[in-house]
Design goal:
The complex is a heterodimer of chains A (392) and B (290). Chain A is α/β, with parallel strands linked by helices and 392 residues long. Helix content of chain A is 41%, strand content 13%. The N and C termini of chain A lie far apart (83 Å). Chain B has 290 residues and is mainly α. Chain B: This is Branched-chain amino acid ABC transporter permease.
Chain lengths: 392, 290
């Protein structure tokens, strides 16, 4: 008993000494991202498990980095991707940020694809003066933070494009919105609608932002009674279209968000129903589209699933590499951040507008959407090209 | 307004069926089973995966129901063997743990919301009649008929048959039931197996209207528990009524723009008020009896 009491303070001192030593070692190793030699460490926070799963994203970023490394790297230095799974758990996302930014000393975050990363880590990225280029920006914080610039239009710019497509391309006067609103997204949705109203001078015929899980029939009946010609929709595909078919809504154009653009969902649209999806990149189901060839070849070569998310991953990695190749001198967190804030726009064929990071307080550089239609259980690319609101 | 009530009523049959499964489990084996819908979803997804692979719908349905029955049977056997002497709260806690595990495994096996969405066979999608703007399909009629059949059938079985009597004895006094010669573990396991099979059938029936992916179907337990509460986890006809009421309330709240934003909450608030209204005398009596 006595011995253990004596040992306790000693153990505490020893533990403190270890902690201090470890901290000192980490600083020497470049924990502030100031390393000028060895591999260029790049972080990424992805949803690998949990409800929002994008396991192909870090694989696709790594595939691009491996290509660059095989060709000699950046100024002779290899790119090293360190991907962490946050399982859509805010606590784990924060722990990932601490490990990547503070312990591993990454120079930037590239190709993140987490539903919670931007929201919980934006303040930490600002403090660390580090930039993040997510492959898939999900929550509003991804599009209104000074240190984050995703390579996808995101749900709000996409919504404006979908409304614009319904009213200006399909020429409908009665456009309706039946949406599920995630917490914190209401303002973004209102702003997107306002942008469309300003551009077109039109108003929504019906708006319901409280569509949840459960039987969609009451919402469909409301849409029928409002005389909707086009319905914008972002929730579950199967029950919605099954009930719309039962309710005889074959003459309505249903336009869904990019979250519905999966092979599984194409099979859920009953024949005779008109279902469109607004995509964020060139539709991934057609490899002949500009920018898709290289991506598809790379995915097939590495055995990675071809999805819209892996397109975002390749684009995020490509723009990162392009900016780094244009840098002169040391590649550290500080110089990388400076390079992104001062960069020139990059024309990337997979999206509707040039991508740029820039010095602003918020970033949503990619605009516009390309539309696909469900035909016989598959998505068919429509010929109009990218629909960028306000751009004829 | 009538359109909204009819539209809501159409989903009420499905909600009632889910609530009835919860009440049945509680009445027969005295467990509030949080894993019920997830176990049913396992069977439903087994079936739909097999039909996607080209298997005929009938053998696929049989195998799917068998998977849920087996899973439910294993859960029941586990509860009987290891937690037989524990109180209801502990047993409910065990089913919560099983719910989390089954959901995690199901998501892994069958995918998340968009990638794992499946088209369930919907043989009852045809229209029967039209009221105002609402087309009422056979699925609605079948759900309601199934719910009424369970309510009446189980009441008759419990009151008029020997098996029913034994089951009641088992749920209310398992120890005494065993002393008088009823093979409690075997009978209870059989009940778990039967409820697993029934749940799978219910989930397959409601999937085209209420789900489509594993996560949504597994989470239907929340609605099922709310409906079961209306019947006090005991009264089958009240549970049936609770399901229909929940459907109607959902329909009405979706049609009123002032309360639409709170559509998900309103039915549950109304149920809470109903429960309070019904139990206010019980609380008064209980307070006096102490």
């Amino acid at each position: 008993m006595k011995r253990s009491l004596v040992r306790r303070p000693a153990a505490a001192v020893l533990a403190l000494a270890f902690t201090l030593a470890a901290t000192a070692c980490a600083a020497d190793d470049g924990s502030d991202g100031g390393s000028t030699k060895g591999a260029i460490k790049v972080g990424s926070i992805n949803g690998i498990t949990g409800l929002f799963q994008t396991p192909e994203v870090p694989q696709a970023v790594k595939a691009v980095f491996d290509e660059v490394n095989a060709a000699g790297g950046i100024n002779g230095r290899k790119l090293e991707l360190i991907s962490k799974d946050d399982a859509m758990n805010p606590q784990r996302s924060t722990e990932n940020e601490v490990e990547l930014v503070q312990s591993k000393g990454v120079v930037a975050l590239v190709g993140s694809s987490s539903a919670v990363d931007c929201g919980v880590n934006r303040a930490a990225y600002k403090t660390a003066k580090i930039v993040s280029i997510p492959a898939v920006g999900v929550d509003p914080a991804c599009f209104n933070s000074p240190d984050i610039a995703p390579v996808n239009p995101g749900p709000f710019k996409l919504l404006t494009a979908m409304l614009y497509y319904a009213s200006e391309t399909l020429h409908h006067d009665k456009v309706c919105l039946y949406y599920t609103t995630l917490p914190g997204s209401g303002g973004g949705i209102s702003d997107a609608i306002k942008e469309w109203e300003t551009l077109t001078g039109k108003q929504l015929a019906a708006k319901d932002t409280a569509v949840g899980e459960g039987d969609p029939t009451p919402h469909l009946i409301a849409a029928k009674q409002a005389g909707c010609q086009a319905v914008l929709y972002n929730a579950q595909v199967g029950p919605w279209f099954a009930q719309a078919q039962t309710q005889g809504m074959q003459n309505v154009d249903f336009i869904m968000g990019a979250n519905s653009y999966t092979d599984a969902n194409a099979k859920l649209v009953p024949s005779g129903m008109r279902a469109y999806v607004g995509t964020e990149w060139q539709p991934y189901t057609d490899t002949t589209l500009p920018g898709n060839g290289r991506w598809a070849e790379l995915m097939d070569k590495r055995g990675i699933q071809r999805t819209a998310f892996s397109q975002g991953a390749v684009m995020a990695a490509d723009v990162f590499v392009q900016v780094l190749k244009g840098m002169k001198g040391d590649i550290t967190r500080k110089t990388v951040t400076e390079a992104f804030k001062k960069m020139s726009p990059i024309e990337y064929p997979m999206v509707g507008s040039p991508w740029v990071f820039g010095p602003g307080d918020k970033h949503n550089p990619v605009q516009g959407s390309r539309f696909v239609k469900a035909v016989d259980g598959k998505w068919q690319v429509l010929p109009e090209g990218f629909i960028v609101p306000g751009k004829k | 307004m009538l359109n909204s009530v009819i539209a809501g009523l159409s989903s009420g049959g499905g909600y009632a069926l889910l609530g009835l499964c919860v009440v049945l489990t509680y009445r027969l084996v005295a467990v509030v089973n949080f894993a019920m819908a997830a176990v049913g979803a396992m069977g439903a997804f087994t079936m739909v995966s097999l039909t996607d692979d080209g298997l005929n719908v009938w053998p696929a349905l049989f195998l799917g129901v068998a998977v849920s029955a087996a899973l439910s049977g294993v859960l029941g056997a586990l509860l009987i063997r290891w937690f037989g002497e524990h109180n209801e709260r502990t047993k409910a806690a065990v089913t919560v743990a099983v719910y989390v595990a089954v959901m995690a495994v199901g998501l892994r096996l069958f995918g998340a919301t968009s990638t794992g969405a499946r088209r369930f066979p919907a043989p009852f999608d045809g229209a029967v009649f039209r009221i105002g703007d609402v087309v009422v399909s056979w699925a609605v009629v079948v759900s309601l008929a199934f719910a009424v059949a369970i309510t009446v059938g189980v009441e008759v079985m419990l009151r008029r048959t020997l098996v029913g009597l034994r089951l009641q004895a088992l749920s209310e006094r398992p120890g005494t039931a065993q002393v008088v010669g009823i093979s409690a573990p075997r009978l209870a396991t059989a009940v778990w197996v039967a409820i697993g099979a029934l749940t799978a059938l219910v989930i397959i029936l409601v999937a085209p209207r209420l789900g489509g992916d594993f996560s949504t179907l597994g989470k239907l337990i929340v609605t099922a528990l709310a409906v079961a509460m209306v019947g006090g986890f005991r009264n089958l006809p009240l549970t049936l009524g609770g399901g229909l009421l929940l459907g109607c309330l959902e329909g009405v709240s979706a049609s009123l723009s002032e309360v639409r934003e709170y559509r998900g909450v309103i039915p549950f608030l109304v149920i809470l008020v109903l429960l309070w209204w019904r139990s206010r005398h019980e609380v008064w009596d209980t307070a006096h009896s102490r």
